Amino acid sequence: MSGSDDDVGSPTIGNVIKKQAVTVFSSPSKALTRFGERHADCWDQAQTRRRCRSARSGPVSGLPDEPRSIDPD
After folding, report:
1. In whole angstroms, how far apart are CA 48 and each of 54, 63, 64, 71?
2. How much is the pTM?
């Protein structure tokens, strides 16, 4: 069953990559800007994920991305 899932996902990823490549060659400056923004988003997500993981592994309280530690009352 998992093999069929991979088969469904692979062509979609390939199409996205091809589409981005075409965009890069058709208008380099615009595509580079868009790629830079997307890369920044991925970097932010990676940093957030790392921060959450370190927060879970260690009992650190008062983190801004932990709503439980902040009491509204």
Report:
1. 10, 12, 11, 22
2. 0.20
How far is it, in rounded angstroms, from Cα 57 to Cα 68? 16
CA 37 – CA 27 distance, rounded (Å): 16
Domain ranges of the chain: 2-52
Tokens describing residue 72: 């509204």
Write the pLDDT tens digit of every residue in 3-55.
444 455 555 666 666 665 555 555 555 555 555 565 566 666 666 666 656 55
Q: How far apart are CA 62 and CA 49, in angstroms?
A: 17
